[in-house]
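Hey, resending since the last one bounced:
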Amino acid sequence: MTVSDFALELRDITKRYPLVLANDHISLGVKWGEVLALVGENGAGKSTLMKIVYGLVTPDEGQIYVNGELVKIQSPSDAIALGIGMVHQHFMLVDTLSVVDNVILGMEPKNGVAIDYAAARKKVKNLIDELGFDLDPDAIIEELPVGAQQRVEILKTLYRNAKILILDEPTAVLTPQEVEDLFKFLREFAEQGHAIILITHKLDEVMEVSDRVTVIRDGKVVGTVNTAETNVAELARMMVGREVILTVHKKPATPGEVVLEAENLFVKGGTRPRLDGVSLQVRAGEIVGIAGVEGNGQTELVEVVTGLRPFKGTIRYNGEAVHPSARVVREWGVSHIPEERNDRGLILEFSTRYNVILGDHYKPPFVGFLGFFNDQVINEYAQRVVEEFDVRPRSINLIGRRYSGGNAQKIIVGRELAREPKLLVAAQPTRGVDIGAIEFIHQNIVEARDKGMAVLLVSADLNEVMSLSDRILVMYEGRVVGEVEPQEVTEEQMGLMMAGLEATA
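The C-alpha coordinates again:
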Protein backbone atom coordinates (compact mmCIF):
# COMPACT_ATOMS: atom_id res chain seq x y z
CA MET A 1 0.00 0.00 0.00
CA THR A 2 1.47 3.31 -1.05
CA VAL A 3 1.02 6.28 1.29
CA SER A 4 3.36 8.62 -0.61
CA ASP A 5 4.04 9.46 -4.24
CA PHE A 6 7.71 8.85 -3.49
CA ALA A 7 8.97 5.32 -3.08
CA LEU A 8 12.31 6.53 -1.73
CA GLU A 9 13.45 9.98 -0.60
CA LEU A 10 16.87 11.09 0.54
CA ARG A 11 17.07 14.36 2.45
CA ASP A 12 20.35 16.17 3.11
CA ILE A 13 22.43 12.98 3.01
CA THR A 14 26.02 13.81 3.94
CA LYS A 15 29.02 11.49 4.13
CA ARG A 16 32.54 12.61 4.96
CA TYR A 17 35.79 10.71 4.58
CA PRO A 18 39.29 12.00 5.40
CA LEU A 19 40.05 14.72 2.82
CA VAL A 20 36.86 13.93 0.87
CA LEU A 21 33.26 15.12 1.20
CA ALA A 22 31.65 12.27 -0.74
CA ASN A 23 28.02 13.37 -0.33
CA ASP A 24 27.24 17.00 0.46
CA HIS A 25 23.63 17.39 1.67
CA ILE A 26 22.17 15.37 -1.20
CA SER A 27 18.40 15.35 -1.58
CA LEU A 28 16.57 13.35 -4.24
CA GLY A 29 13.62 11.05 -4.67
CA VAL A 30 12.26 8.33 -6.93
CA LYS A 31 8.51 8.04 -7.37
CA TRP A 32 6.42 4.92 -7.56
CA GLY A 33 5.96 3.92 -11.19
CA GLU A 34 9.07 5.66 -12.57
CA VAL A 35 12.64 5.03 -13.63
CA LEU A 36 15.03 7.61 -12.16
CA ALA A 37 18.47 7.75 -13.77
CA LEU A 38 21.33 8.78 -11.49
CA VAL A 39 24.32 10.09 -13.42
CA GLY A 40 27.60 11.80 -12.65
CA GLU A 41 31.34 11.53 -13.17
CA ASN A 42 33.50 9.04 -11.30
CA GLY A 43 34.00 10.31 -7.79
CA ALA A 44 30.80 12.38 -7.92
CA GLY A 45 29.31 10.40 -5.03
CA LYS A 46 26.83 8.04 -6.74
CA SER A 47 28.26 4.80 -5.37
CA THR A 48 28.55 6.13 -1.83
CA LEU A 49 24.96 7.32 -1.99
CA MET A 50 23.62 3.95 -3.14
CA LYS A 51 25.72 2.13 -0.54
CA ILE A 52 23.99 4.29 2.06
CA VAL A 53 20.57 3.37 0.65
CA TYR A 54 21.45 -0.32 0.70
CA GLY A 55 22.88 -0.25 4.21
CA LEU A 56 26.53 -0.76 3.33
CA VAL A 57 27.59 2.72 4.51
CA THR A 58 26.21 4.84 7.36
CA PRO A 59 25.63 8.53 6.58
CA ASP A 60 26.97 11.24 8.89
CA GLU A 61 23.85 13.36 8.40
CA GLY A 62 20.48 13.20 6.69
CA GLN A 63 17.30 11.15 6.58
CA ILE A 64 15.93 8.34 4.41
CA TYR A 65 12.21 7.95 3.78
CA VAL A 66 10.62 4.85 2.27
CA ASN A 67 7.04 5.29 1.12
CA GLY A 68 6.79 8.46 3.19
CA GLU A 69 8.08 6.97 6.44
CA LEU A 70 11.37 7.85 8.11
CA VAL A 71 13.57 4.73 8.29
CA LYS A 72 17.00 3.66 9.50
CA ILE A 73 18.99 1.42 7.18
CA GLN A 74 22.03 -0.01 8.93
CA SER A 75 22.56 -3.18 6.89
CA PRO A 76 21.49 -4.81 3.61
CA SER A 77 19.03 -6.89 5.68
CA ASP A 78 17.29 -3.66 6.72
CA ALA A 79 17.14 -2.53 3.08
CA ILE A 80 15.73 -5.87 1.91
CA ALA A 81 13.11 -5.82 4.68
CA LEU A 82 12.02 -2.38 3.39
CA GLY A 83 11.63 -3.73 -0.14
CA ILE A 84 14.88 -2.32 -1.55
CA GLY A 85 16.93 -4.53 -3.87
CA MET A 86 20.24 -3.82 -5.56
CA VAL A 87 21.74 -5.42 -8.66
CA HIS A 88 25.48 -4.80 -8.54
CA GLN A 89 27.67 -4.18 -11.57
CA HIS A 90 29.71 -7.28 -10.76
CA PHE A 91 27.29 -10.16 -10.28
CA MET A 92 27.13 -11.81 -6.85
CA LEU A 93 26.46 -15.34 -8.09
CA VAL A 94 27.94 -18.76 -7.25
CA ASP A 95 28.98 -20.09 -10.66
CA THR A 96 28.75 -23.78 -9.78
CA LEU A 97 25.22 -23.62 -8.39
CA SER A 98 21.90 -23.62 -10.24
CA VAL A 99 19.58 -20.68 -10.86
CA VAL A 100 17.27 -21.84 -8.05
CA ASP A 101 20.17 -22.30 -5.60
CA ASN A 102 21.44 -18.79 -6.27
CA VAL A 103 18.02 -17.16 -6.03
CA ILE A 104 17.09 -18.69 -2.67
CA LEU A 105 20.58 -18.48 -1.12
CA GLY A 106 20.19 -17.08 2.39
CA MET A 107 16.37 -17.24 2.24
CA GLU A 108 15.80 -20.96 1.77
CA PRO A 109 12.27 -22.20 2.58
CA LYS A 110 12.38 -24.88 5.26
CA ASN A 111 10.42 -28.04 5.91
CA GLY A 112 11.40 -28.61 9.50
CA VAL A 113 15.20 -28.39 9.55
CA ALA A 114 15.61 -29.35 5.88
CA ILE A 115 15.38 -27.09 2.84
CA ASP A 116 12.04 -27.50 1.07
CA TYR A 117 13.64 -27.59 -2.37
CA ALA A 118 10.41 -28.46 -4.17
CA ALA A 119 8.69 -25.39 -2.75
CA ALA A 120 11.72 -23.23 -3.56
CA ARG A 121 11.87 -24.44 -7.15
CA LYS A 122 8.13 -23.89 -7.61
CA LYS A 123 8.31 -20.33 -6.28
CA VAL A 124 11.31 -19.49 -8.48
CA LYS A 125 9.68 -21.08 -11.54
CA ASN A 126 6.47 -19.13 -10.96
CA LEU A 127 8.49 -15.91 -10.66
CA ILE A 128 10.35 -16.67 -13.89
CA ASP A 129 7.05 -17.29 -15.69
CA GLU A 130 5.48 -14.16 -14.22
CA LEU A 131 8.38 -12.00 -15.39
CA GLY A 132 8.62 -13.67 -18.77
CA PHE A 133 12.33 -14.41 -18.32
CA ASP A 134 13.87 -17.02 -20.63
CA LEU A 135 15.55 -19.02 -17.85
CA ASP A 136 15.82 -22.68 -16.89
CA PRO A 137 15.60 -22.83 -13.08
CA ASP A 138 17.92 -25.86 -13.05
CA ALA A 139 20.63 -24.34 -15.29
CA ILE A 140 24.11 -23.94 -13.80
CA ILE A 141 25.19 -20.28 -13.62
CA GLU A 142 28.58 -20.75 -15.33
CA GLU A 143 26.81 -22.24 -18.37
CA LEU A 144 24.56 -19.20 -18.84
CA PRO A 145 25.32 -16.18 -21.04
CA VAL A 146 25.93 -12.87 -19.29
CA GLY A 147 22.45 -11.50 -20.02
CA ALA A 148 20.84 -14.55 -18.42
CA GLN A 149 23.09 -14.21 -15.37
CA GLN A 150 21.89 -10.66 -14.95
CA ARG A 151 18.28 -11.88 -15.03
CA VAL A 152 19.19 -14.25 -12.20
CA GLU A 153 20.49 -11.28 -10.20
CA ILE A 154 17.19 -9.48 -10.77
CA LEU A 155 15.30 -12.64 -9.77
CA LYS A 156 17.23 -12.70 -6.49
CA THR A 157 16.00 -9.23 -5.59
CA LEU A 158 12.39 -9.89 -6.62
CA TYR A 159 12.34 -13.23 -4.76
CA ARG A 160 13.01 -11.07 -1.69
CA ASN A 161 9.98 -8.93 -2.61
CA ALA A 162 11.89 -5.87 -3.76
CA LYS A 163 9.63 -2.99 -4.82
CA ILE A 164 12.45 -0.46 -5.19
CA LEU A 165 15.17 -1.69 -7.54
CA ILE A 166 18.65 -0.15 -7.83
CA LEU A 167 20.78 -1.16 -10.82
CA ASP A 168 24.46 -0.19 -11.03
CA GLU A 169 25.78 0.02 -14.62
CA PRO A 170 23.53 -2.88 -15.69
CA THR A 171 24.34 -2.87 -19.42
CA ALA A 172 28.14 -2.92 -19.22
CA VAL A 173 28.48 -6.50 -20.50
CA LEU A 174 25.30 -6.98 -22.54
CA THR A 175 24.66 -7.27 -26.28
CA PRO A 176 22.26 -4.73 -27.84
CA GLN A 177 19.50 -7.37 -27.85
CA GLU A 178 20.08 -8.14 -24.16
CA VAL A 179 19.99 -4.41 -23.37
CA GLU A 180 16.63 -4.10 -25.12
CA ASP A 181 15.30 -7.09 -23.15
CA LEU A 182 16.47 -5.49 -19.91
CA PHE A 183 14.85 -2.16 -20.77
CA LYS A 184 11.61 -3.93 -21.63
CA PHE A 185 11.63 -5.51 -18.18
CA LEU A 186 12.44 -2.19 -16.46
CA ARG A 187 9.60 -0.40 -18.22
CA GLU A 188 7.14 -3.16 -17.31
CA PHE A 189 8.37 -3.28 -13.69
CA ALA A 190 7.85 0.47 -13.35
CA GLU A 191 4.42 0.31 -15.02
CA GLN A 192 3.38 -2.18 -12.33
CA GLY A 193 3.82 0.61 -9.80
CA HIS A 194 7.35 -0.15 -8.63
CA ALA A 195 10.36 2.20 -8.56
CA ILE A 196 13.77 1.95 -10.22
CA ILE A 197 17.03 3.85 -9.76
CA LEU A 198 19.37 3.32 -12.72
CA ILE A 199 23.05 4.25 -12.37
CA THR A 200 24.77 4.47 -15.75
CA HIS A 201 27.42 6.33 -17.71
CA LYS A 202 25.58 5.79 -20.99
CA LEU A 203 23.51 8.87 -21.66
CA ASP A 204 21.79 7.41 -24.71
CA GLU A 205 20.39 4.71 -22.41
CA VAL A 206 19.30 7.36 -19.93
CA MET A 207 17.30 9.04 -22.68
CA GLU A 208 15.75 5.76 -23.78
CA VAL A 209 14.52 4.24 -20.54
CA SER A 210 14.29 6.87 -17.76
CA ASP A 211 11.49 9.24 -16.76
CA ARG A 212 13.64 11.68 -14.80
CA VAL A 213 17.38 12.24 -14.37
CA THR A 214 19.27 13.42 -11.29
CA VAL A 215 22.79 14.67 -11.96
CA ILE A 216 25.45 14.67 -9.24
CA ARG A 217 28.76 16.53 -9.46
CA ASP A 218 31.42 16.82 -6.75
CA GLY A 219 29.15 15.28 -4.14
CA LYS A 220 26.24 17.67 -4.77
CA VAL A 221 23.02 17.46 -6.76
CA VAL A 222 23.37 19.72 -9.80
CA GLY A 223 19.74 19.25 -10.76
CA THR A 224 16.89 16.90 -11.60
CA VAL A 225 15.24 17.12 -15.03
CA ASN A 226 12.46 15.36 -16.88
CA THR A 227 14.03 13.13 -19.51
CA ALA A 228 11.57 14.28 -22.16
CA GLU A 229 12.69 17.88 -21.62
CA THR A 230 16.47 17.39 -21.89
CA ASN A 231 19.05 15.92 -24.24
CA VAL A 232 22.39 14.13 -24.12
CA ALA A 233 24.45 17.30 -24.61
CA GLU A 234 22.73 19.09 -21.71
CA LEU A 235 23.16 16.10 -19.38
CA ALA A 236 26.85 15.84 -20.29
CA ARG A 237 27.30 19.55 -19.58
CA MET A 238 25.58 19.17 -16.19
CA MET A 239 27.80 16.19 -15.33
CA VAL A 240 31.13 17.71 -16.32
CA GLY A 241 30.50 21.43 -15.94
CA ARG A 242 31.55 22.23 -19.51
CA GLU A 243 30.72 21.36 -23.10
CA VAL A 244 31.68 17.77 -23.98
CA ILE A 245 32.44 16.38 -27.43
CA LEU A 246 30.17 13.35 -27.57
CA THR A 247 31.29 11.90 -30.89
CA VAL A 248 34.71 10.64 -31.90
CA HIS A 249 36.09 12.83 -34.67
CA LYS A 250 38.78 11.11 -36.70
CA LYS A 251 40.00 11.20 -40.25
CA PRO A 252 40.20 8.00 -42.32
CA ALA A 253 43.04 5.70 -41.36
CA THR A 254 46.12 5.34 -43.55
CA PRO A 255 47.42 1.89 -42.54
CA GLY A 256 51.08 1.10 -43.02
CA GLU A 257 53.16 -2.02 -42.42
CA VAL A 258 51.81 -4.97 -40.43
CA VAL A 259 52.94 -4.48 -36.83
CA LEU A 260 51.17 -7.42 -35.18
CA GLU A 261 50.33 -10.68 -36.90
CA ALA A 262 48.74 -13.63 -35.11
CA GLU A 263 48.12 -16.99 -36.75
CA ASN A 264 45.98 -19.84 -35.44
CA LEU A 265 46.16 -18.92 -31.76
CA PHE A 266 44.94 -21.67 -29.45
CA VAL A 267 44.43 -21.56 -25.68
CA LYS A 268 43.03 -24.47 -23.70
CA GLY A 269 39.86 -24.07 -21.68
CA GLY A 270 37.43 -26.23 -19.73
CA THR A 271 34.68 -27.64 -21.91
CA ARG A 272 35.91 -25.68 -24.96
CA PRO A 273 39.05 -23.78 -25.99
CA ARG A 274 39.40 -20.20 -24.78
CA LEU A 275 40.95 -19.33 -28.14
CA ASP A 276 40.21 -21.58 -31.08
CA GLY A 277 42.28 -20.77 -34.17
CA VAL A 278 42.26 -16.96 -33.92
CA SER A 279 44.19 -15.11 -36.64
CA LEU A 280 44.45 -11.33 -37.11
CA GLN A 281 46.64 -8.49 -38.28
CA VAL A 282 47.06 -4.95 -36.95
CA ARG A 283 48.86 -2.38 -39.09
CA ALA A 284 50.62 0.82 -38.17
CA GLY A 285 48.20 3.75 -38.22
CA GLU A 286 44.98 1.80 -37.68
CA ILE A 287 42.68 0.81 -34.84
CA VAL A 288 41.43 -2.78 -35.00
CA GLY A 289 38.51 -3.32 -32.64
CA ILE A 290 37.52 -6.62 -31.06
CA ALA A 291 33.79 -6.83 -30.34
CA GLY A 292 32.04 -9.55 -28.37
CA VAL A 293 30.18 -10.34 -25.19
CA GLU A 294 32.68 -10.72 -22.37
CA GLY A 295 33.90 -14.27 -21.84
CA ASN A 296 34.27 -15.17 -25.51
CA GLY A 297 38.06 -15.15 -25.65
CA GLN A 298 38.87 -11.43 -25.67
CA THR A 299 40.70 -11.53 -22.33
CA GLU A 300 42.77 -14.51 -23.41
CA LEU A 301 43.63 -12.84 -26.71
CA VAL A 302 44.93 -9.75 -24.90
CA GLU A 303 46.92 -11.88 -22.46
CA VAL A 304 48.52 -13.86 -25.30
CA VAL A 305 49.45 -10.78 -27.30
CA THR A 306 50.96 -9.07 -24.23
CA GLY A 307 52.94 -12.14 -23.11
CA LEU A 308 50.85 -12.96 -20.06
CA ARG A 309 49.50 -16.37 -21.10
CA PRO A 310 50.98 -19.46 -22.81
CA PHE A 311 49.48 -20.46 -26.15
CA LYS A 312 49.88 -22.49 -29.30
CA GLY A 313 50.20 -20.72 -32.64
CA THR A 314 52.38 -17.97 -34.04
CA ILE A 315 52.78 -14.30 -33.16
CA ARG A 316 54.92 -11.94 -35.24
CA TYR A 317 55.92 -8.40 -34.33
CA ASN A 318 57.05 -6.50 -37.45
CA GLY A 319 57.47 -9.83 -39.21
CA GLU A 320 59.62 -11.42 -36.50
CA ALA A 321 58.17 -14.55 -34.90
CA VAL A 322 58.31 -14.29 -31.10
CA HIS A 323 57.10 -16.51 -28.30
CA PRO A 324 56.49 -13.60 -25.99
CA SER A 325 56.94 -13.01 -22.31
CA ALA A 326 55.61 -9.86 -20.69
CA ARG A 327 59.06 -8.25 -20.48
CA VAL A 328 60.09 -9.25 -24.02
CA VAL A 329 56.85 -7.83 -25.41
CA ARG A 330 57.22 -4.57 -23.53
CA GLU A 331 60.83 -4.12 -24.55
CA TRP A 332 59.89 -4.77 -28.16
CA GLY A 333 57.49 -1.82 -28.02
CA VAL A 334 54.06 -3.01 -26.87
CA SER A 335 52.04 -0.96 -24.38
CA HIS A 336 49.11 -2.50 -22.54
CA ILE A 337 46.08 -0.82 -20.95
CA PRO A 338 44.73 -3.75 -18.88
CA GLU A 339 41.02 -4.40 -18.41
CA GLU A 340 41.39 -4.54 -14.60
CA ARG A 341 43.15 -1.34 -13.62
CA ASN A 342 43.38 -2.15 -9.90
CA ASP A 343 44.72 -5.69 -10.40
CA ARG A 344 47.12 -5.15 -13.30
CA GLY A 345 47.24 -1.45 -14.03
CA LEU A 346 48.34 0.12 -10.77
CA ILE A 347 49.98 -0.78 -7.50
CA LEU A 348 47.43 0.85 -5.25
CA GLU A 349 49.81 1.62 -2.38
CA PHE A 350 52.44 3.16 -4.71
CA SER A 351 52.52 6.86 -5.42
CA THR A 352 51.89 8.28 -8.87
CA ARG A 353 55.62 8.84 -9.41
CA TYR A 354 56.24 5.10 -9.26
CA ASN A 355 53.02 3.99 -10.96
CA VAL A 356 53.91 5.99 -14.09
CA ILE A 357 57.21 4.12 -14.55
CA LEU A 358 55.90 0.59 -13.92
CA GLY A 359 57.21 -1.81 -16.52
CA ASP A 360 60.17 0.43 -17.35
CA HIS A 361 61.27 0.99 -13.75
CA TYR A 362 64.42 -1.14 -14.11
CA LYS A 363 65.85 0.75 -17.09
CA PRO A 364 67.59 4.07 -17.67
CA PRO A 365 66.82 6.89 -17.33
CA PHE A 366 64.80 5.87 -14.27
CA VAL A 367 67.73 4.02 -12.69
CA GLY A 368 71.33 5.12 -12.54
CA PHE A 369 74.64 3.31 -13.06
CA LEU A 370 74.49 1.46 -9.72
CA GLY A 371 70.83 0.50 -10.05
CA PHE A 372 69.39 3.17 -7.73
CA PHE A 373 66.33 5.19 -8.71
CA ASN A 374 67.08 8.53 -10.32
CA ASP A 375 64.53 10.49 -8.28
CA GLN A 376 64.90 13.78 -10.13
CA VAL A 377 64.27 12.14 -13.52
CA ILE A 378 61.33 10.13 -12.16
CA ASN A 379 59.75 13.20 -10.57
CA GLU A 380 60.09 15.31 -13.72
CA TYR A 381 58.74 12.50 -15.91
CA ALA A 382 55.80 11.83 -13.57
CA GLN A 383 54.92 15.52 -13.39
CA ARG A 384 54.93 15.73 -17.19
CA VAL A 385 52.62 12.71 -17.53
CA VAL A 386 50.25 14.03 -14.84
CA GLU A 387 49.96 17.40 -16.59
CA GLU A 388 49.83 16.13 -20.16
CA PHE A 389 47.13 13.57 -19.36
CA ASP A 390 45.15 15.85 -17.05
CA VAL A 391 45.39 13.66 -13.93
CA ARG A 392 43.64 15.25 -10.97
CA PRO A 393 44.77 16.09 -8.36
CA ARG A 394 48.10 17.14 -9.88
CA SER A 395 50.13 15.29 -7.24
CA ILE A 396 52.89 12.83 -8.04
CA ASN A 397 52.90 11.65 -4.41
CA LEU A 398 49.26 10.58 -4.05
CA ILE A 399 48.88 6.80 -3.80
CA GLY A 400 46.93 4.90 -6.45
CA ARG A 401 43.90 3.99 -4.36
CA ARG A 402 43.18 7.67 -3.63
CA TYR A 403 42.24 8.45 -7.24
CA SER A 404 38.77 8.27 -8.75
CA GLY A 405 38.32 5.66 -11.46
CA GLY A 406 38.69 8.17 -14.28
CA ASN A 407 41.90 9.67 -12.96
CA ALA A 408 43.39 6.27 -12.14
CA GLN A 409 42.69 5.29 -15.75
CA LYS A 410 44.36 8.48 -16.99
CA ILE A 411 47.52 7.52 -15.10
CA ILE A 412 47.57 4.15 -16.88
CA VAL A 413 46.77 5.60 -20.31
CA GLY A 414 49.38 8.31 -19.81
CA ARG A 415 52.04 5.81 -18.76
CA GLU A 416 51.37 3.51 -21.73
CA LEU A 417 51.20 6.24 -24.38
CA ALA A 418 54.09 8.33 -23.05
CA ARG A 419 56.40 5.41 -23.92
CA GLU A 420 55.53 6.01 -27.62
CA PRO A 421 55.04 2.29 -28.33
CA LYS A 422 54.77 0.62 -31.73
CA LEU A 423 51.62 -1.25 -30.64
CA LEU A 424 49.01 -0.25 -28.07
CA VAL A 425 46.79 -3.04 -26.73
CA ALA A 426 43.86 -1.26 -25.08
CA ALA A 427 41.52 -3.55 -23.13
CA GLN A 428 38.34 -1.88 -21.84
CA PRO A 429 40.14 1.51 -21.85
CA THR A 430 37.14 3.49 -20.52
CA ARG A 431 35.42 0.92 -18.29
CA GLY A 432 33.85 2.62 -15.29
CA VAL A 433 35.09 6.00 -16.49
CA ASP A 434 33.04 9.19 -16.58
CA ILE A 435 32.08 10.96 -19.78
CA GLY A 436 34.73 13.68 -19.52
CA ALA A 437 37.54 11.14 -19.10
CA ILE A 438 36.08 8.99 -21.91
CA GLU A 439 36.29 11.96 -24.28
CA PHE A 440 39.91 12.57 -23.26
CA ILE A 441 41.01 8.92 -23.57
CA HIS A 442 39.34 8.51 -26.97
CA GLN A 443 41.09 11.63 -28.27
CA ASN A 444 44.47 10.32 -27.13
CA ILE A 445 43.95 6.90 -28.73
CA VAL A 446 42.99 8.50 -32.06
CA GLU A 447 45.99 10.87 -31.87
CA ALA A 448 48.27 7.87 -31.24
CA ARG A 449 46.85 6.17 -34.34
CA ASP A 450 47.37 9.29 -36.41
CA LYS A 451 51.04 9.33 -35.35
CA GLY A 452 51.44 5.85 -36.83
CA MET A 453 50.82 3.65 -33.81
CA ALA A 454 49.06 0.31 -34.28
CA VAL A 455 46.13 -0.10 -31.87
CA LEU A 456 44.32 -3.30 -30.86
CA LEU A 457 41.15 -2.23 -29.04
CA VAL A 458 39.08 -4.64 -26.96
CA SER A 459 35.89 -3.28 -25.42
CA ALA A 460 32.57 -4.59 -24.17
CA ASP A 461 31.09 -1.20 -25.08
CA LEU A 462 29.83 -1.72 -28.62
CA ASN A 463 29.44 2.01 -29.22
CA GLU A 464 33.08 2.53 -28.28
CA VAL A 465 34.25 -0.21 -30.65
CA MET A 466 32.15 1.12 -33.53
CA SER A 467 33.13 4.76 -33.06
CA LEU A 468 36.89 4.26 -32.56
CA SER A 469 37.72 1.31 -34.83
CA ASP A 470 38.82 1.35 -38.46
CA ARG A 471 38.11 -2.39 -38.71
CA ILE A 472 36.16 -4.64 -36.36
CA LEU A 473 36.63 -8.34 -35.64
CA VAL A 474 33.78 -10.08 -33.84
CA MET A 475 34.58 -12.90 -31.41
CA TYR A 476 32.25 -15.66 -30.27
CA GLU A 477 33.23 -18.73 -28.24
CA GLY A 478 36.93 -18.20 -28.81
CA ARG A 479 36.74 -17.69 -32.57
CA VAL A 480 36.67 -14.73 -34.93
CA VAL A 481 33.26 -15.07 -36.59
CA GLY A 482 33.42 -12.03 -38.84
CA GLU A 483 35.21 -8.88 -39.90
CA VAL A 484 33.26 -5.70 -40.67
CA GLU A 485 33.76 -2.04 -41.46
CA PRO A 486 32.11 0.08 -38.75
CA GLN A 487 30.42 2.41 -41.23
CA GLU A 488 28.86 -0.55 -43.08
CA VAL A 489 27.22 -2.42 -40.20
CA THR A 490 24.41 -1.69 -37.72
CA GLU A 491 24.44 -2.28 -33.98
CA GLU A 492 21.69 -4.87 -34.48
CA GLN A 493 23.80 -6.84 -36.96
CA MET A 494 26.77 -6.61 -34.61
CA GLY A 495 24.64 -7.85 -31.73
CA LEU A 496 23.55 -10.90 -33.70
CA MET A 497 27.14 -11.72 -34.58
CA MET A 498 28.21 -11.29 -30.95
CA ALA A 499 25.49 -13.76 -29.94
CA GLY A 500 26.71 -16.28 -32.53
CA LEU A 501 23.56 -15.99 -34.60
CA GLU A 502 25.17 -14.64 -37.77
CA ALA A 503 28.55 -15.48 -39.20
CA THR A 504 28.70 -12.31 -41.33
CA ALA A 505 27.02 -8.92 -41.23
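The first helix runs from residue 46 to 53.

Sorry for the duplicate.
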